[in-house]
Structures are given as structure tokens and as C-alpha cells.
Amino acid sequence: MLSALAVFAVGFVARPFGALILGPIGDKYGRKLVLVITVMGMGLTTTAIGLIPNYDTIGVAAPVLIVILRCLQGIMVGGEWSGAATYLGESAPSNRRAEYASLITVTAGAAFLTGTLLAYFLNLWMDAESLELWGWRIPFVLSFVMAILALFIRRNLEDTPVYEELQQRRAENPDMKVATRKEKLSAFGLALAFCSVFGVSLYYFVTYANNHLATIVGMDRPPALLACSIGIIVYVLAQPVVGRWSDRHGRRPVLLGGTLYLAVFAIPIFLLLNTGEFWPVLLGLIILALGVAPVAVMNVALLVEVFPASVRSTGAALGYNVAYAVLAGPGPLIAGWLIQVTDSQVSPAYYLLAVCAIAFLVLVRYLPETRGKDITEG
């Protein structure tokens, strides 16, 4: 499991490079172009992973190619989430930005649910030998269909009103005021904090939980995947509610409340998961879902609102992806390692607790209230 999670983590190391490449493209040539590049890049690399011959056919080249494609996949994703956040946030009415932000997290949650359910049904329908031999390839190859569909939708998009206004301002006043170094660093630091909370909790929820249940706790894979699927449904349903509430009451109370909630419930969640019984496990996953949902929606809204317009695409991509490369992506691997070195099935909770506690202290001190902010400035 540690080896598999290490390959999973490798893709996150490549994400900041994607941010450095794709972020400036979004600031200079428009938000739409980045979204077209990323969706095709993700579709092609994911499909290629599903088509790689196995070790018996091409030897060590198989795992090497998997890691290379995982890195390329990470580069594409490095521009996707922040690019989508920027596009939707800049297109939303100022009094509904968090509600629009929840569209991204809801559809991402629906994708996690689709993947988890597909794994659930594959485990039900196929024997272990067939699944290991060729069944695991099915979800990867199917991603190509989704990429073509997404490309068809995105190629017909117009660029955001904020970007168009920014371009007009640049044309009329080449010496227009841009964000200062202090403003950029402040926004980057805040993004590291709230993206770390979201990333670590999200990948504990959608990636590590079912591996922990099946591999560490010894729960049968199908009921573990079913419980995870129900948890993701709760996560998806909670997000529009969070978005609307935040548009009325602000970003700070939602983000700080969600971060503190995750810190408080980190250990109880793992105590429930470690029972290996379906209903306590499901309760633990629902508790986790209700903590991840608010930090997810705030992540998208704040990536738009804390960064100045002129560097938003680059800044949001870097802040988000550095947090993921350093803390979130390796989170499942760190969780597995903690169990190995401590011999305690609760120990993954300590990492989630530590990340949330440190981020909470940073955010409670430095995070401004950005609800209703003019995002065309800077």
C-alpha cells in the first residue's frame, strides 16, 4: 500500500511545475485557454496509463512509464483546479461567488463518487485475478470519453468579464497599478494555509479512507467502498448549502469553523473507522464529509478573492499546488507511514489534526473577510 500511495504522491510533486507553466498562460492569454489545455492533457495521460503494457511484457519500463505519466498528469492538474476556480469565480455575481464555487466542488465530488462506485462494481463483478490483470484499466481508458466531452464544452466558452476588463485597462493604461510583492506573498501564504487543510482532509476522505479500511482494518473492499460512496454523497449535498450560507455570512466563519471542526473530530473519526463495522464506519465518514465540505467550497472562493486580478491565475495555481505537493498529496502516504512506525491505527489522525491546528492559527490571525470584495483590483 505504501508503494502505491508513493506513486499517487509523485503526481503532486509535479503540480507546481504545471502552475508555473499554465498559470502565466492564464494571466497573459486568458482563463479559457488554460482550461482547454488541462482537460485534454489530463484525458490523454490518464488514458495512456490504462494502456501501458504490464511488467511481464515490457519489464521495468512499465512502472517507469506509470510514474512519468503520473507526473504529466500532475502538471495538467496543476492548472485545472485553480483555473476552474478563477474562471467560475470571475464569472459569478459578486453576491453569489461561494455558491458558484460550490459548483466546482460538487462536480468534483460527483467525479470522486463515480470513481468510487466504479471501483465498487468492478470489485463485485470481477474476481481478484481478472481485476489485477486487466479490470483496473477500465476507469483509466473511460476517462478519454470524458475528456472529449469536456473539450467540446470548453472550446465554446468565452473568457471571464474580469479578464476582459483587465485587458481593457492594460490597453488604456500600460502603467496601471499592479499588485505589490507584499500583497502577492500575503495571498500566497494564506493560500498555503487554507489549501493545505482542504487537500489533506480531501485525500484522507476520497483516497486514503477506503485503503485504510480494506488494508489496515481488514474490512471487505465492497462494503468499504459502499460506505465511502455514501459519505461522498453527503459531501456533495452539503456544498451548495455551505456556498449559500457563506454568501450571506462571510468566508471567515465558514473556513475557520470547518478547520476547527476537522481538528476536533480527527481522532474520533479514526476511532469509528477502526471498528471495521459498516455503520460506525459510515458515521465516521459522514462526520469527515461534513468537515471537508466547508473547507472545499471556501478553497475555491478564496483562491479568487485573496489574489489580485493581474496575478490571479499564476498565484492561485502556485498557492494551491505547492500546498498539495508538500502536504496534501503525500498525506495518504504519511498516514500509512505513521501506522507503520507507531503501530497505531489512530495515528493518521495526528497528521490531519496538526495541519488543521497550524492552519487555524495562521488563518484566524491573517485571513481577511473577502465576501463582496472587488476582484477586478490589482
What does this protein structure show overall?
The protein contains 16 helices and no strands. The protein has helices spanning 2-13, 15-29, 31-51, 55-58, 61-91, 97-125, 128-135, 137-154, 161-172, 181-217, 221-249, 251-273, 278-305, 312-328, 331-342, 348-366. The mean pLDDT is 88.
- How many beta-strand runs? 0
Sketch the major β-sheet.
none
* Number of distinct helices: 16
Instruction: Quote the beta fraction.
Output: under 5%
Structure, briefly:
With 378 residues, this protein is an all-alpha fold. It has helices spanning 2-13, 15-29, 31-51, 55-58, 61-91, 97-125, 128-135, 137-154, 161-172, 181-217, 221-249, 251-273, 278-305, 312-328, 331-342, 348-366. The chain is globular, with a radius of gyration of 20 Å.
Throw out a few tags for this protein.
single chain; 378 residues; mainly alpha; 83% helix
Strand and helix map with partners:
Layout: H1 2-13, H2 15-29, H3 31-51, H4 55-58, H5 61-91, H6 97-125, H7 128-135, H8 137-154, H9 161-172, H10 181-217, H11 221-249, H12 251-273, H13 278-305, H14 312-328, H15 331-342, H16 348-366
Helix pairs in contact: 1-5, 1-14, 1-15, 2-3, 2-5, 2-14, 3-5, 3-8, 5-6, 5-13, 5-14, 6-11, 6-13, 10-11, 10-12, 10-13, 10-14, 10-15, 10-16, 11-13, 12-13, 12-16, 15-16
